[in-house]
Each structure stands twice: as structure tokens, then as C-alpha cells.
Amino acid sequence: MSLNTLLTQLGLQRHDPHSLEGQLHAMRRDVQHLRQLLSRQTGQTANHWGDQLHEIGSAVATQTGEFAQMAGQEARKGAGMIRRDPLPAIALAGTALLLIRLLSRR
User: Fold this and answer.
1) What span, in angstroms and rounded, lies between the C-alpha atoms of 59 and 65?
2) Would the N or C end of the chain have less CB density within 10 A of its end CB?
3) Model confidence, pTM
4) CA distance 7 to 75
5) Poorest-confidence range of 3-17, 44-58, 80-94?
6) Higher-confidence residue: 14 or 71?
7) With the CA atoms of 50, 51, 52 and 57 taken in that order, what torsion angle do they form, in degrees rounded to the nearest 10?
8) Is 1 helix (H, G, I), strand (E, B) or coil?
9) How many Cα atoms within 13 Å fall on the side-chain side of residue 80?
10) Cβ contact 15:25 at 8 Å
């Protein structure tokens, strides 16, 4: 039994690099290598984008919380001002209602 026969039976056939079969085998190996590289690169890119989106989301959440806190403080200040002197708020509400009524007649 020859070495080529033994290798063929084991599924480990040696290919002549200049034969068509050898070239096809080399192309399959290259395609497999490219597929692995592409898969690895895709995974790394997805991780990178995921990390960046997480950072952006965290920053937005932090700023939204700060904005909500500032809005709450301003609302409390406004409520306190209205409790101390309700006349400007009543005048403002009355002016707004009068303006709406005048504009809706046209």
C-alpha cells in the first residue's frame, strides 16, 4: 500500500500544489481562513459599537436625570412664588385665556 492510498483512506490526502485538486484545496483553505477573519472582525466591531452605544446611553441617562432635577427645583421655586403672591399667576392665566378666546373668534 502506498502512502497516498493510506492518506486517502484516512481523509488526509496530500495534494500536489500544481494540480487542479491541489489548487481547489488551497482555495478552500484560504476561503476558510478569510471566513474566520471576517467573523472575528465582525465580532470585534459589534463589541466596539456596543460599548460606544452603552457609553452614549449612560451619558444621556445622566444628563436626563440632571435636567429632571433642575426642572423639579424650578417648579418648586415657581410654586413657592405663587403661594407667596398669586396675583401675577392669576393675571398671566387670565391674559392667556383672553388671548386664546380672541384668536379663536377669527
Assistant:
1) 10
2) C
3) 0.47
4) 83
5) 3-17
6) 71
7) 90
8) coil
9) 6
10) yes
Q: Which three cell numbers, joined as nine digits, stand for 9?
A: 483512506
Cell of 76: 418648586
Cβ atoms of 51 and 57 within 8 Å: the answer is: no
Amino acid letter, 83: R
Residues 75, 84: Cα–Cα separation, whole Å:
14
Give dist(CA 81, CA 68) in Å, integer.
20
Question: Locate cell 472575528: which residue?
Answer: 40
Find out whether 7 and 14 touch, Cβ atoms under 8 Å. Answer: yes
Cell (9 digits) for 39 = 467573523
Query: Which DSSP state fits 18?
Result: T
Sign of CA dihedral 45, 46, 51, 53: positive
Q: Cell numbers of 6, please?
A: 493510506
Grid cell listed for 22: 491541489
What CA–CA distances, in Å, run from 44 to 36, 54, 90?
A: 12, 15, 61
